[in-house]
Amino acid sequence: MQEKKILYVDDDQRLCRLIKRYLERAGYQMRCAADGNQMHQQLINDDFSLILLDIMLPDKDGLVLAREVRNISSIPIIFLTAKSDINDKVDGFELGADDYITKPFEEKELLLRIQSVLRRSQSEENRPGRKTEAHFSGWTLNFIHQTLISPDNQPVEITNCEFQMLSNLVNHPNEAVSRNTILKIISGREWSPLDRSADMAISKLRKKIEINPKKPVLIKTIRNKGYQLTSAVEYAED
């Protein structure tokens, strides 16, 4: 089986050497880039299965780089950064990250998170007879290209995080999708009553698909349960 190749973008050369040792010991190939320019050059010259991306970089912010990658590729991205504020995490997932790990971290946790993201990515690629589109209330969500088209046939920009949330909702129409499920999508962890990041993420999604986001009709909040897509959904399959 061909080794998975991972690109790590961080200007900390000591940490780069350390993670290279971790990953190669686990059977991965690894390349390093110290900034955005080096990252893009590596992506042009080689094929990677996953990107580990720091946020604080010498040229471009890692969040900006994630947006640039998402504009051209669906390659999995894991943020590996010292920035632990919840707003940074929400921003990271909304820009298309598949996971978010804060420094310092344990080697075992890093490897498990990488394995989980790669396994999820491979599962999506190999799934037979998959749904290609969902049509609801005039909207079209394309599962293959991760695009959203409005009822007046206009493309609506949608982040990877928003795509994952909306996909979950349209795959369970008229059912309550729990806050815990939403939080696992955006940050991979359990929900607690004091954590409002799931509500914040749903609120931003509503702004894109609701006529009046303050009085949502398509995505309703179900008290003590979560969120529900109220529309009927029709699917197209390949």
Structure description:
- It is a single chain.
- 39% of the residues lie in helices and 22% in strands.
- Helix 7 packs across helix 8.
- The model has no long low-confidence stretch (mean pLDDT 86).
- The chain has helices spanning 13-25, 36-45, 62-70, 86-94, 107-126, 160-170, 179-187, 197-209, and strands spanning 5-9, 29-33, 50-53, 77-81, 99-102, 131-136, 139-142, 147-149, 155-156, 176-177, 219-222, 226-229, 234-237.
- The strands form three sheets. It has a five-stranded parallel beta sheet, with helices on both faces. A five-stranded antiparallel beta sheet has the order 9-8-7-6-13, with helices on one face.
- With 238 residues, the protein is α/β, with parallel strands linked by helices.
- It folds into two domains: 5-126, Rossmann fold, CATH 3.40.50; 131-237, Orthogonal Bundle (Arc Repressor Mutant, subunit A).
- The radius of gyration is 19 Å and the shape is elongated.
